[in-house]
Every structure is written in C-alpha cells, then in structure tokens.
Design brief:
This protein has about 130 residues and is α/β, with parallel strands linked by helices. The chain has a single domain, classed as Glucose Oxidase, domain 1 (3-Layer(bba) Sandwich). About 20% of the residues lie in helices and about 35% in strands. The protein is built from four helices and nine strands. A hairpin with a 4-residue loop joins strand 8 and strand 9.
C-alpha cells in the first residue's frame, strides 16, 4: 500500500525513481564524481553508489555557490539524479535545483531519511509538496 509524506512545496516537475538514502549531508561539489555518476567522497555512506536517475534522499545541504552550476551541468549531460529530497536545504541548494530544473523538496513532516529506504520506488510531486512511496 502506498504511503504519502508531506513536505514544503518544492521545485520542478513530478519525478519517479528508485531511492538512494543516507543520513549524510549533501554537496554536489564535494560528494560526487559528476563524470562517472557516483558518490566519490570516501567518508560518505553512499561512497561508490551510482546516483544517476535515482531519487537522492539525504539529511541537509552543505556547500556553496558551485552547487548551482554543478547541478545544472549534471542535468544537461543526463548525469543527474531523478530528484533530490533533503530534510533541510539552504537557499543555494534551492537555487541550484531551480537553475538545473531538478525536482527538489525539503522540510518534511518527519525525517525523510527514516521514512524512505534505499530501493523504495518513490514518486516526488514538488508542486503538491508530496512524496509517495510505493
């Protein structure tokens, strides 16, 4: 039976994909190998995991202004996640998602990293502020 989690209305179009989840924070600049499409920072729990086409579910945003152009570049090359869900984002991450046209949400009614498990099929509807787990 599908479960629905509400969050703050987000950015981008509806997207569906397999979840990739960790309680770690997220930086497009420091955590990813944007050419290979994998998490590359050795200290990250998702190190070595492929993120392309998956719904990333992580704790909070970290990093600076490079996030915006990095997310856009990843989307332009077809090397981006299907969507990004964070418990808490910063304005730079939101700006980056908007600039890249990457489906994005944050500020959920419960800890999103506890609500979704890696491998779950997830539909993200940012405009409605809703995430559905099949």
């Amino acid at each position: 039976m599908p479960r629905t989690i509400r969050g703050h209305p987000g950015i981008g179009s509806k997207a569906t994909g397999e979840a990739l989840v960790a309680k770690d924070d997220f930086s497009a600049r420091y955590d990813l190998d944007r050419i290979a499409g994998v998490f590359s920072r050795p200290g990250h729990r998702l190190h070595g995991e492929r993120y392309v086409g998956r719904v990333l579910v992580l704790n909070t945003a970290k990093g600076g202004v490079a996030t915006s152009w990095m997310l856009r570049e990843m989307c332009a090359r077809g090397m981006a996640p299907a969507a990004l869900l964070l418990n808490l984002a910063n304005p730079i991450m939101a700006q980056g998602a908007a600039f890249a046209d990457l489906p994005f949400m944050d500020r959920f009614e419960r800890d999103i990293t506890d609500a979704i498990r890696t491998g779950d099929r997830v539909t993200v509807d940012p405009r409605a502020g809703r995430v559905t787990i099949d």
